User: Fold this.
Amino acid sequence: MDEQQTPAERDSLKDQMGHLIEEARMVLPGIQALFGFQTVAVFNERFADLPFGVQACHMIALALVVVAIALVMMPAAYHRLATPDRVTLQTIKVCSRAICYALAPLAAGLSLDMFVVLHAVTSDDVLSIASAVASFALLIGLWFVYPLHRRRVHGYGATDAGA
Assistant:
């Protein structure tokens, strides 16, 4: 908890659940659009010309994005089915984790598709792999490493962050 924030200023469980659902609503359209573009790519004539390994990377990326979509949509379903008449701290934790966990397969899927796109454009394995690794490092760094570092710097514990 922030040193200047009193317990009364913390969001209620209902407010926290509202924020979680709103975060999911903001992220979901982008992930769904990505999924649509990924799906359409296999019908492109050039896709058939890619080596099987590159095509397989795209299919794995597609599967990873499906996992991310499932995890982002999970909070609304969990709340409606598991605790429809109340918001509990357990519900907040489960839903918060689902949204956070969605970022890992999303980062992996985006990075694999970065590999596929660069390979399709350049046919350079080294450049394609390097771009995928750099993309993954950037996304994991911004989505996990930096926030967790800031959490530690500010002294938030697992119970303060709802994790």
